[in-house]
Structure prediction request, 860 residues.
Amino acid sequence: MTTAITIKPASTDVANLPVLEICNLAVGYRGNEGFQRVVHDVSLRVRPGEVVALVGESGSGKTTTAQAVIGLLAENGRLEAGAVRLNGTDIAGWSQKRLDAIRGSKISLIPQDPTSSLNPVKTIGAQVAEVLQIHRQGNRAEIDARVIELLTRVGLSQPELRARQYPHELSGGMRQRVLIAIAVALRPALIIADEPTSALDVTVQKRILDLIDELRGEYGTAVLLVTHDLGVAADRSNHIVVLKGGRIQEQGPTAEVLASPRSEYTRKLLADAPSLGKTRSVPRSVSPRIGERDDAIVVENLVQDFIVGSRRDVFRAVDGVSFTVQRGTTHAIVGESGSGKTTTARSIVGFQKPTAGRILVDGIDVTNLRGENLRRFRRTIQLVYQNPFASLDPRQTIFQIVEEPLLNFDPLPREDRARKVQAILDRVGLPPSALTRRPHALSGGQRQRVAIARALVLDPQVLVLDEAVSALDVTVQAQILALLDELQQSLGLTYLFISHDLAVVRQISDTVSVLHDGRQVDSGRVEDVFQRPGSAYTRELIGAIPGQRNLNPHLFS
Amino acid sequence: MTGLNTIGRSLLRDDAEIPASASKASRHAPSGARWLKAVRGIQPGLVLSWSVMAVVVLWALFPQWFTSYSATVGVARQQLRAPSAEHWLGTDALGRDLLARIIYGAGNSLSGALVAVGVGLVVGTTLGIVAGSARGRIDGAIMRGVDVLLSIPQLLLSLSIVILLGFGIVNAAIAVGITSIASFARLARSEVVRVRASDYVEAAFGSGGTFGRVLLRHILPNSLTSVIAFAALQLGWAILTISTLGFLGYGAPPPTPEWGLLIAEGRNYLARAWWLTTVPGIVVIVVVLSANRISQSFGKARA
Prediction:
């Protein structure tokens, strides 16, 4: 399962003059509380044809560094010190007008979010043509021809048709290809790719990264790859720069950094990254007993239709999904966006009535519940949401948030409630001082702990985790996964773990269902599915997990 | 390049990288610095707006503190005097002191505006909340009714209502209030729908919350802030509309001092006594602007 493109080391004769050289860069932002420096003393070089990965968690200053290079800092940002040399010329102090002349032609950007990066009211062709027009590349007919050529080059089918289409008619992966076409249109010496695939599904991510690799080989362009994903960096870069808190922790050739990290922080990042071929870290204390069936969740032939549009068209989001989850184990539902995994979860929790099929949770048939019975049933199963910024009421204190489920059932005296809330917060590792705070005063990881505490305060049997760790940084993600594991061991919880991330799934679950377009294409014990995938789609998914190239090659051989 | 430039700018902005710990710094700052910061944080426009409102409210509550003249009884041989030390803003055709009439008029105009906003706020918001939380047919019925209200020009609607209810300051206020029901209902509904779709409301239902409880605990507190900001904005608008009705003769009957009526009466003497229309007009404009500024600050506090 090795990927097709291997990275050639940059040839040594042209390597003398770096395309980009950043020396002692310092950047700060002016906020309500005065000026705050967020990038300190960053120095790095990108040689021709080389990929340098800028790795760090959110808030590490990686995007700010990239913005400073291309002169696109936010209004309140300022480049305070240091030099940014592009082919030897210092562009750090250049005006926007002067930078306009080189942006697009010498240095270009592949932005992060393909859904919001294209102008919705202009055609694809017009948007690719724009960069050519600005830099005066020939007359109209020549530009049109070049646009088609570029769209073909980035692997879009039917380029003539695509050029006439609008962004909303294209998928996320196709839009990202268009953005790449814009970035490479003038064959710049340097491309800054700011999390170019973070918003994409894993199989699409692989294709896009392959494309960037290919174009880089063809045009000899250097790439500064900004990413939070150590797996992507490990696969795709020659050189890694690890940032934390705006300072460089470590930099060096990728293989060296991965094999023998020098800084404590890099070691921690490597240990926490799920994508690097780890299996379940903690051995199960309760091994699934054969013969003695005690199923917490039984799903049989689940079908979920939605009516779309005014013509009452039926869209089948989930089509005949069946699985059982034994008490005290973790079952994962894996799939890409649109595969029906969240729909399945919402039916199981009782937020929608399935079109057909049967769902038993703790022996209760969910599909027939309504009114008061449904409300009572909610004590049995709780849902933890993906985005801890949206799932907590911003106006309530942490105490109120965690207390609320208790108020909905058999009222306890005030002191008992307070004691219970404190105990559960302690259980999920939050300090008592958090009780009086509001969600905005907590970090993402802390908020997710609050969400887990709220879900657990009713002592449910089953916890449904809908992409519950996807929005978190790897180190925080590792902490939350450890917490979940610990809670499962001590409380005997059953987890239904919804995720797009196979690496995380492999790490924490016992059994797995792989969904594709609403159908279950694979299921069984995690190790079986990973070792002997039953469908081509599962094989493709596993092959697309980043981080397999430079680490643990034996695992996927 | 500007196109790509702006696209790039909006894209690259990653709020997470802008220091979030900034607020922590202020908590540890010495008290002197905090005081200095508080002083620097004062917005003069907002302070001025609140002062204007305070003065007008005091006028409405205790008019006798501000003037010794009567608002309704004129002084003989003092007709149409220009502003002077004796009559700061001059007198009208019946020899009544204009300042006194403006001060006494504050009570009528302000209470009218409060009644109008109150009617709109209570009725409109209730309709909006019911529509937004019930959805389905009830939503359709309420919102189509609101659309009908919206489709009639506001002034025409309030005039018709005044004619139905009879002339008078309270009826004019109610008429103005009814015309604002539609806007309140639309705003409240959209806010309720937005909050209802949020994860925390679903989580509240998911943890066994009943409809009423979730409504009270989550939906109302999170959707009412912008409604309140809108109510402050409507206050200025209501003063203006009630003045318009007064000007057209549908509001308070003379000799009641009311700002719209003052402007209307002064119109007859525009050539000889410009201050009779100009000064009440300026007062209305200043009060409306202050109400808008205050409403804006509510809106900001929410964001």
Q: What stands out?
A: The first strand of chain A starts at residue 20 and ends at 31. The CA atoms of residues 178 and 289 of chain A lie 52 Å apart.
